Amino acid sequence: MKKLYYLIYFLIFCCPFISKGQSDSLTITGNLKQTDPAISEKIALVISNQNGTKAFYSSNLKDNKFSFRIPKQKFVSEAHLHLSEYEKDPMKRPLLFFIEFEDLSVQGCTKYLNLSSVRGDLENNKFNMLKDSCKSILFEMEELRSILYSDNKKNDSIEDTRIQRRLSELNREERLLNKKYIKQNPLLYSSLYMLSMISSSYNSDEFAEAFSNLNERYKSAPIAISIKNRIEKERKTSRGNEIIAFKKMSSTGNLINTDDLKGHVFLIDFWGSWCGPCRSNMPHLKKLYAKYHQDGFEILGIAYERNKSTDLNKESWLKGIKDMELTWLNVLDNDGDNSNELIKAYNISGFPTKILVDEMGKIILRVTASANDDIENSLKKIYGH
Q1: Lowest mean pLDDT among 84-93, 231-240, 247-256, 318-327
Q2: CATH architecture of the domain formed by 240-383
Q3: Could you tell me the CA-to-CA distances from 345 to 196, 256, 305, 339, 348 in Å, in that order?
Q4: Fewest CB within 10 A of the end CB: N or C in the chain?
Q5: 3 state DSSP class of 370
């Protein structure tokens, strides 16, 4: 009886370790239909480990097939599969997937490499569902970009504007699907990764909440630490806190005192004339200003310029205001007096950053870059239209 016990103990507890010792590697195999005969026969794999290092591998793509044999990972790691042609076109996306200790298989085509299916473990099987939900969006984006950046494209500003507007709509749809995936799969590493990739799609408080719901197992990973640092920096400007008061001379020569704005709902917009996303966002701000200014809504632009002198900063700032016909309150942070004090005080790390403030001077929300829907929805609730 005792011998049987030891045999069972050996089979249950010892065999897995023997097996692990025999094979500390995994295999990634793939079949990619080559839709372009000019595609290189080389394919590259880049693995980003949770310790912050990267590993690079190369394989032949022969008869549509490839294979990699790589070490098993201690923790889930991000992997990107590249064709050499993709490096020449920054608009093309590589295939993103995740590696730990299971063998994986890839099925797809070279034209839409990023949408290829990766199977073999729960992490990638679930991530395939996100890719499938985004396929029609990404197909359309690919076609529109090919038109927009074609060498034979005719100069047609109206058509270009239409395409850019549609691309913006598609980007928004993709972001919403990504956010839905993160919410529905909080235990997966891929959700942590996607949260870091689309951080600008959240306001600060939603971002912190989304992170708090994720798997504790992965919160020592470098991207998790980066997220924690951002949340901590933005804590002083989270919902319910009073804004950091200041006084500054405006573009029209008047003294702006944030205390004087109490009694108004107002939006602080950190921007710069050099910042493409800031400039492209101004039409949206103009629309909000025109709609709600009669109700008491104000906008306070805080510009940060990147020239070599204070005089040049003022020149580019004032030119930006004039060119874009900005009629709301505007101040320059690096104007020579306590330069960059507001950028530092508000921990601004990305442009544009916007902070919506209520009539009592308390923060309603903070957003960066693309999370404009939150501002518009908040104003609709406040003013009722």
Answers
A1: 84-93
A2: 3-Layer(aba) Sandwich (3.40)
A3: 24, 17, 17, 11, 8
A4: N
A5: coil
- Among candidate residues 306, 327, 328, 308, the one with its CA nearest the CA of residue 317: 306
pLDDT in tens, 267-326: 999 999 999 989 988 999 999 999 999 999 999 999 999 988 999 999 999 999 999 999
23-118 maps to CATH 2.60.40.10: yes
Euclidean distance between CA atoms 259 and 169, whole angstroms: 38
- The phi and psi torsions of 28 (rounded to 5 degrees) equal -115, 115
Judge whether residue 20 has pLDDT over 90.
no
Alpha-carbon radius of gyration of the chain:
26
The token pair that represents 99 in the structure block: 């590696």
Q: How far is CA 11 from CA 8, 16, 114, 317, 352, in A?
A: 5, 8, 42, 73, 60
Buried b / exposed e over 112-133, threshold 16 CB at 10 Å, is bbbbbbbebbebbebbbebbee
**Residue 256: Cβ within 10 Å count:** 18
Tell me the β-bridge partners of 30.
66, 106
φ, ψ of residue 91 in degrees (nearest 5): -80, -20
Tell how strand 247-249 and strand 255-257 pair up.
antiparallel
Tally the C-alpha atoms within 13 A of residue 124's C-alpha that lie toward its C-beta. 26
Cis peptide preceding 283, ω within 30 of 0: no
Q: How many CA atoms are closer than 13 Å to the CA of 146, on its beta-carbon side? A: 8
**97 Cβ contact list (under 8 Å, min separation 6):** 79, 81, 104, 106, 118, 124, 127
Listing DSSP states for 56-73 in one string gives: EEEEE-BTTEEEEEEEPP
Residue 241 backbone dihedrals phi, psi, to 5 degrees: -80, 150
- With beta carbons less than 8 A apart as the criterion, state whether 353 and 270 touch: yes
Rounded Cα distance between 195 and 178, Å, is 8
CA 218 to chain centre: 19
Q: pLDDT at position 111, please?
A: 83
What are the structural domain ranges in the chain? 23-118, 121-233, 240-383
